[in-house]
User: What shape does this take?
Amino acid sequence: MLLIIASLFAIAPIQYPEAHRGNVVDTLHGVEVADPYRWLEQDVRESNDVRDWVQDENTITRQYLDSIETRPYIKETLTKAWNYEKHGLPFHRGSRWFQSRNTGLQNHSVIYTGNSPTTIEKVLLDPNLFSEDGTQALSMYSPSPEGNYLVWGISDAGSDWSTWYAKDLSSGELLPEVIRDIKNDSPSWLPDESGYYYSRYPDSKNESHIETADSTELWFHTMNTPQSDDKLIWSDTDHPDRFYNASVTKDGGWLVISVNIGTSSNNAVLVKGPNEKKLHWLISDFDAEVSLIGGISNTLWFKTDRDAPNGKLISVHFDSQTPKWSVVVPEQQNILRSADIVGGKITCSWLEHASSKTTVHSLLGNLLYEVKLPGIGTASGFNGDAKDKTVYWSYSSYNQPPSIYALDLADGATTLFWESDVPIDLSSIVVRREFVKSTDGALVPLFIVANKDVTLNGDNAVLQYGYGGFDIAILPRFSASRATWIQLGGVLAVACIRGGSEYGKTWHESGMLENKQQVFDDFIACSEWLISSKWTNSNKLAIQGGSNGGLLVGACMTQRPDLFGACLPAVGVMDMLRFPLFTVGWAWTSDYGDPKDATMFKHLFSYSPYHNLKKGTCYPPTMVTTGDTDDRVVPAHSFKFAAELQYSQACANPVLIRIETRAGHGAGKPTHLRIDEAADVYAFLWQSLQMKEQ
Assistant: This one.
């Protein structure tokens, strides 16, 4: 049997596959919770039923999208906009320099090397040769401290799992060691290049896309030896929820290990001096973030939010048996985002109302100067080593593509090193920063990007984006895709809602655990402001978010289905009662809370998108997107939500799910797939929001 629903605006009627509704009911904390699509949690590679459902859904989605007459034009416009040269920041290890570059439409950026920042011309590593279809990607690359070795990781089909390889850069010889069982890590090299520390999972032979992965361990690998000879440095079977991130100071050889519980920003710290044999706790509790900035001799510098929600810099001197703690750069009104010790100075990157600011200080913390930035945007870089006299940094904004600058550390003079040449006229794009009052009176930054000639007539197609979680700041950056959206006549609105780090620790904590509803309230407040300020109306307002942002979209559309003209939840966390059961989902309980806890269950159940869909409701046109091998947020979240949404839908608005095959959470996705997905998204919005040619 097929459910037949008429599509809007002259698109042929959609025939949805009627997914089988099971009778699974769980009793959780005395509450009966139905889960009719539990069977969609099976791995698509192992279940014929799930595989058939995915194929059927993709077929109807493809038919719908391909019937939109403007899609070929949108894809052509996107392809032209994407086709410009892209450069990463140049950096060196010893006398050898490295840089990533993309000629424009290459599926993956290529790694180059050379003898100076202006002679980086030799291809060192070309990820485009990893696979014919581009679905194998470079997960990281790490040259050794003097540039004699290179270690790089390869991920397959968008997986977070990575396999590492190594090469002797002096001889060009590929080394025999292959390092496995790794997720989201990179080597922490010893200064003498003899080996590195790394974190891995114990014997994850299957590297599953669904099964939980925990109990990470810290290991040491000696170069030119097999992984089986690696030495276990630290593990804690009593605390399988802990992650370990090792750093070795460039000067002094201190080993510093950050110990995190799940995805919490708060951490403990283990250290081992260059003449010490054992690790010992420098900080043993988990009540603040303490991240290593660098070290010189017997002094370590850290960024922390302990007793400083906006962040501060501290130093620890180990000249005696009792470490001496000192404040170097005290807490300020702006948010301290990152810092580095370079050329005998400290570079500090700040956030000022969700836009970058950079200062340079002495090692004692005295302000030397502020780096002049081009405008309201995002600057990154400012890293190097103790002997550097120049550091490189990049800057971009919604209407300015990335450019690379060189900073003279001595006098603060900045020169343009490289500038993007994009095939788009950005002169007509303007960026505004508004502040929207939320339900509790807090002011939420809202960036609005639009053509300078746009009129506030209440009838513009607006795409509102947000994230709101895990202490992650959403900052103004250039995107060829977003610039194309403006070119197509759309308006972009980016909400810096609670849960992120735009205003420090307090902003994050105001949108986590029992406060999570505030994230959705902030986003909805921004939506209502866009309508009341005549930027748009509810039929022309689309919302978009990915991962935790997919949860944001799912929660907002189930709470306010009347407010939006289209919804785009991507790779979202949609089942808030079962998320800890898959891959690393258990780690997110630090931000979401644990459904096993009765109090947190009530909060989670109250906004869980999958559980709050109501049959007989008219939901906005919706296109869910995910990857069939996503091993971070497993696709079952999107599968179950889409099936339940199609079942619940009470009007003609389309409900589609676009499932990328051999794709994961998004990292490493080749350029051609990114363009295809963006073309589908904008075509769907064009149709749903009744957009017209400019």
Remarks:
- Residues 48-66 form the longest helix (19 residues).
- Confidence is low (pLDDT under 50) at residues 1-10.
